[in-house]
């Protein structure tokens, strides 16, 4: 399913548009579901991070049907299929990092993690600086994902057989 599923974003989340979010961090997450996921993982459950990420998205809060009505189960399933395919090449480190950020945000909201008055003042008094810091870490998350995605296990060879260059090219950096 590579075509846009023809939903519109919920006007409560911003201007209505047919353009759907392009990256995982643009989708709204139910942080309570991430908290519950981490409880399950702590108990030893193995999971598929993309499936868990998609299960944690607040689909009804972010999207409506074309006619503006709330999404039904079929509409949510279409969005999950669309984003499941769209994000299928995103690696687990990116998703884990993104979901751990949501988890930490939930801990902060519950009061389990407390920020200093100085840090809170920065967010209140210098919102552009705060936004710059957030943008930095989002870019870092994305770079981490690209590197992990590009990673391939080294074949059972000696170091001289790898394809990443040689000592001479490494010395020129």
Write up what this structure looks like:
This protein has a two-stranded antiparallel ribbon with strand order 1-2. The longest helix has 24 residues. By secondary structure, the protein is mostly helical. About 3% of the residues have low confidence. The chain has one domain. Helix 1 packs across helix 5 and helix 6 packs across helix 7. It has eight helices and two strands, in the order E-H-H-H-E-H-H-H-H-H.
Keywords, separated by commas or semicolons:
single chain, 173 residues, two-stranded antiparallel sheet
Task: Write the H/E string, N to C.
Answer: EHHHEHHHHH
What is the alpha-carbon Rg in Å? 20 Å
Total individual domains: 1
Number of helices: 8
- Estimated helix fraction: 40-55%
Strands of the largest sheet, in order across it? 1-2
Tell me what portion of residues adopts beta-strand conformation: under 5%
Overall shape: globular
Q: Distance between the terminal alpha carbons, to the nearest Å?
A: 43 Å
Q: Averaged pLDDT, please?
A: 80
Largest sheet: 2 strands, antiparallel
* Low confidence ranges: 13-17
Which class best fits the helix and strand makeup?
A: mainly alpha
The count of DSSP E runs of length 2 or more, i.e. the number of strands, is 2
């Amino acid at each position: 399913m590579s075509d846009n599923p023809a939903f519109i974003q919920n006007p409560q989340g911003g201007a209505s548009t047919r353009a759907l979010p392009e990256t995982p961090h643009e989708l709204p997450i139910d942080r309570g579901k991430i908290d519950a996921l981490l409880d399950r993982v702590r108990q030893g459950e193995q999971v598929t991070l993309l499936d868990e990420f998609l299960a944690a998205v607040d689909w009804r809060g972010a999207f409506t049907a074309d006619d503006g009505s709330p999404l039904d189960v079929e509409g949510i399933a279409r969005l999950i299929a669309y984003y499941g395919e769209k994000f299928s090449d995103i690696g687990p480190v990116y998703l884990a990092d993104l979901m751990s950020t949501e988890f930490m945000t939930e801990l902060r909201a519950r009061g389990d993690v407390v920020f200093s008055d100085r840090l809170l003042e920065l967010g209140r008094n210098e919102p552009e600086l705060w936004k710059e810091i957030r943008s930095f870490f989002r870019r870092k998350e994305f770079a981490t994902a690209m590197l992990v995605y590009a990673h391939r296990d080294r074949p059972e060879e000696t170091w001289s057989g790898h394809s990443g260059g040689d000592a001479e090219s490494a010395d020129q950096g």
